[in-house]
Amino acid sequence: MARNETKHLESVVALSEELNFTLAAQKLHVSQPVVSRNLAEIESRLGGRLFDRDRKNVRLNKAGRAYVDRARMALLYGDRAFDAAKAAMHDTDTIVHVGKSPYVDPFLPSTLVSVQRSRFPHMRLELSSQYSFDLAHEIIAGELDLAIANDPPESPSLTTVKIAEAPFYIAMSDTDDLTRNPSVTLNDLADRCWITFERRLHPTLYDNVLAVSQAKGVAASRIQHVRGPEEAFPSVAEGGCIAFVVKAGALRIARDGVTVRPLAEGSLSLKTYLVSRSDNDSKTLSALVRCFIRQLEGATRDISRDGLTSA
Hints:
This protein is of the alpha/beta class.
């Protein structure tokens, strides 16, 4: 069997990310000839090219994509093997890397942390925040073990479980006539200034909002884009615009002259998923996920029961 050394894996993965030999070498802290030599060696052993290249361009081909997908995991498992052995030697905690979208309900990551602390005392969660498309990429690349993401992109490399669904909310001035209604519809928002998140932050959600609006014959007078709800606050408080926000954003913006109402459009909602790599066979991670989902199911039953009691 042809040897597939770590240096080959690292060089091919770095080149696939940079598509430039000089930048790949800088990323690996080696010289450019080293990357070229490592690539030449592995391509010689494979009997074919992983990249299509000329003097100006470097492009990953079909064989290269297949190689890189597995190479990333090989490097990841090598690092994780080292970390696991080191943790066992020093009796330290198992680290689980978890990412979350800034749009998720704060209740979800706080519940995950609560489950970990009560059920898995020798585990430590390292939490980070990123947008959903980036979270999916980091899961596939092996940089994260688990993610709580809104409507992640579909991929055969990902396993997803829906754990929550909630409406969008519309933020408005507390003097707006729409505050008389318990909820609002897209028709209520016609010919008004809309503030929404930038498309690049979540293309699927953004396009869905505009597609549903177009299908209903509803259009804004103009659309402003922001990265976070706080940026929308001045325009909303002054009554010049309304803003599309999710629950997490609604909790931050509803103050000092701004209030929110749920958007009553069944085809528009924010779905939240638990995401992991489809080939992640970690028993510890599986146990954490099972306990987390049971905790969420129990909380949902409690809310339903309390609602029935109140009714």
